[in-house]
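[scheduler] slot 2 assigned
[scheduler] job type: sequence-to-structure, two independent chains
[scheduler] chain ordering preserved from manifest
[runner] begin chain α
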Amino acid sequence: MLAKGKRKDNGKWITGYPFTYGIEDEWYFVPEFTNKLKTVPVEKKTICRYTGEMLSDGRRLHEYDKVEVKDTNGNKISGIIRFGTYQSCFDSTATAHIGFFVDWQDCYWRKDLGYWVNSDRLEIVGSTKD
């Protein structure tokens, strides 16, 4: 599973493949782009799974990313990329889905991530792990 996390040595984001062994709170990444096997210690609380989706500008969407869209009046609506069970807020009997979704601060927006990935309106503005 590809993810991003903050390095323990300098606090900078790194992309790679997380793993742990021995002590549960000690996590490491094998960096995504490396020509030799090396490990980098990362802060466990900063690990964010890659959703498998990218914006049109090539930036990857990760769990816990803060995102924004503008509504028709130009107001910014904020959300957070999450993983779990979600369903339409309009119909409590709607089918529940499991996966990555956008948890909007205002419930009337679509939650399915696939819809927003294909929209030029979605912007990544940070991470809740910053």
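[runner] end chain α
[runner] begin chain β
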Amino acid sequence: MTKSTTLTVIFGVLIVTTLTTVWLRALPQNLTLRFHPYVGDKPLVLYDQSYKNPGGNGDFSIRDFQLFISNIVLDYSSSSIKEPESYHLVRFDDNTAFDKIIIPEIKIQNLRQLSFAIGIDKKANGTLVISGDLDPNSRMAWNWQVGYKFLLLEGMLTVQEEQLPLVYHIGFNESYTELNFDVSNEKISNNGVIDFKIDLLRLFQINSSHLNELTNQQSSEVIKYIDMSELSHVKFSPDDVRIIAKGFHDFISIL
């Protein structure tokens, strides 16, 4: 086979592959959102793996992590799709590498933006109606003055052989956080998968704007972290919940 013939064959294969990919994207298929839990740049491993307290001394481990993802909206150039009964409990308590949400039989071609929220919207948060993964009898149901826990994170902090339980149950309507992601073709695999990273450290990160808000002072851009030993138990205190919920804005990103 001559060099020119080889190049022609390779070029032909590339054309066929490209056309096949475009054709497949034009057909309805499942869109899979896969959520991978991390602690900084390390994958989250439950129970056995320890991570450094980002704001102080000691190491922590996680035994349970779950959160609600809701109100998924897909935006195209001239239309949008809102998933019905869009309340998903994403769980990592079985030590899985990721959890996933499947949106069945949609066209992923020309998908421009994907939106969803962390938590439960006010209307659904105050009702006993079961929709999607909402269940008033589940562990994620709080009480009906508050509604659901939007995020549950539990573990243990060890400082000089002393163990301190970590309990973060984050709820309240004001913690509901909408996120928007620009979606281009390279961010969606050929089999319709988008991979997301959930970085737990971002829940304990305080940027300068948040620091200014807490201290009523102006400062230059700086990143600080909450000392887990000083804020180890967050449940019904609106002020403490607000501190952790600030991290909802940027603790999920596309891998």
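[runner] end chain β
[qc] chain β: The chain has one domain: 40-95+110-181+200-254.
[scheduler] slot 2 released
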